[in-house]
Amino acid sequence: xxxxxxxxxxxxxxxxxxxxxxxxxxxxxxxxxxxxxxxxxxxxxxxxxxxxxxxxxxxxxxxxxxxxxxxxxxxxxxxxxxxxxxxxxxxxxxxxxxxxxxxxxxxxxxxx
Amino acid sequence: xxxxxxxxxxxxxxxxxxxxxxxxxxxxxxxxxxxxxxxxxxxxxxxxxxxxxxxxxxxxxxxxxxxxxxxxxxxxxxxxxxxxxxxxxxxxxxxxxxxxxxxxxxxxxxxxx
Lengths: 112, 113
Known about the structure:
By secondary structure, chain A is an all-beta fold.
């Protein structure tokens, strides 16, 4: 079983704050790292798929970086809004199996 | 209509009953997965299938079985449901290209009493 860790488990911020959270994964046999956003009562939806060391992806106010050598990825949200409140999941794909293994998620609550 | 559809959306069943959760997709993806979500535990893989003739156990397959009836359909069965199988179940699909994202169904909330 692959060890994919996310921290913090939960986060409360005020509207307008910028925030970031971490996904740690095995540094060997890396294939891809995914980030998903999961709103309450909805399905997880992909934000980014990252495959190369040093990758940086951006979608609006949300961005992500990837360090495959040390086995971590950061997700950043700039100027958080209440609609950013969700659970953010990362999923690691190892070479060979290619099965997405998910972390436990970071629950973000943005207070108006 | 959703690209990945799960039925039922909610189900309450009794201990010992057999139950089937169904998943169908219109995305034309080869790969399909069943995950289970429990509070604080994230998504854990139950079974996966890379094509119609391919079925593989995931991390927590005990007590479950699956059937890939067609490229578009992947069913999960609980042969004899037990209370600790109470959870939110997600079906997901992904394209043959290995580094593409997964697309999820709406989830099935199953309660075993």
